[in-house]
Amino acid sequence: MLKKIALIIFTTFALTLNVHASSDGELVLKKNDPTEIKECWEGFNRATFALNQGLDKIIFKPVASVYKNLPIPLKSGVSNSLDNLSNVVTIPNNLLQGEFRKAGVNTGRFIINTTIGILGIIDVATLIGLDEYEKEDYGQTLAVHGVGPGCYIVLPVLGPSTARDTLGSLANFMGGDAWYNVTVNNDTQYFSDFDYYASRVTAGVDFRAKNFSSIENLETNSIDFYASVKSLYLQDRQQKILNAKIIVDTQNDSDWEEIEN
Amino acid sequence: MKKKLFIIIFTISLLINNSIAIEPDVFVQSTVNRASTLLSEEISKEQKIEKLKLIAKDTVDIRGIGFYTLGAARKNLSDDDKLRYAELFEKYFLKSFSSRLAEYTNPEIDVFSKEILNKNYTIVNSLLKATNERPEIKIDWRIYTKNPEKPLIRDLIIEGLSLARTQKEEFASVLNSNNGDIKVLFKTLEDFTNN
To answer: B189 to chain A: nearest residue by CA?
Structure first.
């Protein structure tokens, strides 16, 4: 009970730093601008970041280095299957964001890929013209409805987040993720807790393997790796919230205007 | 006769002007091809790095990126500090840029479209083809076109993530952690370049 109260106080405190309900596109853009997001707990975040780097070196990096050398069809199958599974969170969020057409297409994709595509291993839906949309989550839905990101936070093992996105991800454990519901929340005879946690760890390894050399390169060539990762994460979140396909929609050109040769 | 002469001179001058201007997408494709040819050469990594630095000096607006990266802090710099910063940033940028690229062997990039933002900027869209190691990657290039005869690269936007913006926030973090002391940033850049 105390844990719950602490959690509520923490999220309320973090979010009230910039919660003002609005659905105006420009306001959403401004609120989620990486430079506008507050760094409230830099000491804690840097310590957690160092811990995560340690875990990466010991666990994720070695596993990803083996995984990335597996045959391409095997990696694609795993990746497709994980993408397909993410639809069970994307579809309710499409609906919550009022994107009914996308919810319909994603539902179609999920049904086709789970059945004809053998548990999502083969992306049959794309082959027949149902193109994939961006993944959605509860943090993005909160943002679309005007909730500001609050403070930047680095979570142990899970990595970069914001107060809003952390709160959003809690919705997954409170009935918002059908995969969690059938594996961990409910005692079904078909799945176990292991299936859920195995899928989460595999998703982490898949991401690490896909970005293997980029992450190494970034770390080697950064003068402040923590700041680089923070910037890239927040830019990526901004893009996902806006569902922007191209940077010209989101980058402020006036930043460059003062610099003339 | 005078009219004919005028038309000839006018047409020639038009042709000359047009032949000198370089289209941003052609510029990007040719720069990529230069880098790609170099990266597929059978020479040492160190030699590749040195040659990549020459390509970068020729095609990237290093000074512009440097001052953009510094953000608002550039307004408080003395002229001496500006000179010092420009020199340090160039060394930092060339080392960082060339060592990042030198890891690739024969990258295949296809330019497929462009969007003119205004007379100073065009975004060129391209795709880095997938390999066994990594998936296909979308790369947009922010090209500074104020001088159409000499377009310059000012930013690379990889899957929607701006490298210049990331670098700017990284530099701001170093300054914020050290009470805005530019000397600490100079030292950090020196250490990076010398290591």
So the answer is: A223
Chain A residues whose C-beta sits inside 8 Å of any chain B C-beta: 34-35, 68, 72, 210-214, 217, 220-224, 226-228, 230-232, 235-236, 239, 244-248, 250-251, 253, 255-256, 259-261
| pLDDT tens-digit readout, A93-108 | 999 999 999 999 999 9
Q: By residue range, what is the domain housing residue A162?
A: 2-242
Quick check: is A249 in a domain? no
What is the pTM for the complete model shown? Answer: 0.83
A144 falls within a domain: yes
Please report whether residue A251 resides in a domain: no
ipTM of the complex: 0.81
Total domains present in chain A: 1
Q: Which residues of B116-149 are buried (b: 16+ CB within 10 A; e: fewer)?
A: eeeebbbbbbbebeeeeebeeebbbbbbbbeebe
Residues A253/A254/A259/A261 CA torsion (nearest 10 deg):
60
DSSP β-bridge partners for residue B125: B113, B140
Q: Which residues of B touch A (CB under 8 A)?
A: 61, 63-64, 67-68, 92, 96, 99-100, 103, 115, 117-118, 120-121, 123, 125, 132-135, 140, 144, 146, 154, 157, 160-162, 165-166, 169-174, 177, 188-189, 192
Asked if the Cβ–Cβ distance from B174 to A224 is below 8 Å, we say yes
Cβ within 8 Å, pair B169-A220? no
Domain boundaries, chain B: 24-194
| CATH superfamily of the domain spanning B24-194 | Tgt2/MlaC (3.10.450.710)
The answer to whether residues A133 and A106 touch, using CB atoms and an 8 Å cutoff, is yes
Alpha-carbon distance B96 to nearest alpha carbon in chain A (angstroms)? 6
Report angle CA B148, B150, B155 to the nearest 5 degrees.
95
Q: What is the pLDDT of residues B58-82, one digit of tens each?
A: 999 999 999 999 888 888 889 999 9
